[in-house]
Amino acid sequence: MLTITDLNVDLAGNQILRNINASFGAAQTIAIVGRNGAGKTTLLRSIMGLTGVKSGVIMLNDIDLTRRPAHIRAAYNIGYSPEDRVIFPTMTVEENLRLPCITQKQSRKEIDERLAVVLKVVPQIEPMLKRSGAALSGGQGKMVALGRALMVGTRMLLLDEPFQGLAPKLSMDYTQALSRLRVLQPELCIVITESNIKLLGNIPDQTWTIERGSIDAQAITMKEGV
Questions:
Q1: The whole model's pTM is what?
Q2: Which of 98, 123, 135, 168 measures 20 to 30 Å from 63, CA to CA?
Q3: The dihedral of CA 120, 121, 124, 128: what is its sign?
Q4: Structural domains present in the chain
């Protein structure tokens, strides 16, 4: 589905990603694990078009995404939940959820139907729909950011360090949401970055290690039977 070939990214004169080669297929949940500064966030931002690339190619099937802007990539049904959530404080939770679909000019019926699915996946959001984005705790913000990414992420979902800072109860809620998601959208490709592999439990089908901007193919592990 999505293939990265020889991807190199420099930021502020420093090489962050080095010759990344990776393939992400449908119906996979892939964890990318590495220390802070290893390049996890930059990799996801590069896929989303939020960080420019020095060289390399990002292909979605036969579509070259490499130089296309972020909103075009989201229009190809790629959802992104950043580590810092980025919830708009002056908008309600429901407005935050609907916003990416509105910017893609989806119909009210389409947005309503998608919101209903998201609330099935993350039912904790429903009591917060009318709440201001500014009134959310950090953990609640991460749940809302997951829901917002799901509003458009029907093909691929990118989650940047979603478990960092979550209280145990919210961490369990998040894990259960991902389990429901895999039942409701079995063809979805989910990519999760984390610095602490223990937080991921049995969620991933595959776990990749990224170090100094390179993915170590020898460190790829898979669940038995996958």
A1: 0.93
A2: 98
A3: negative
A4: 2-222 (3.40.50.300)
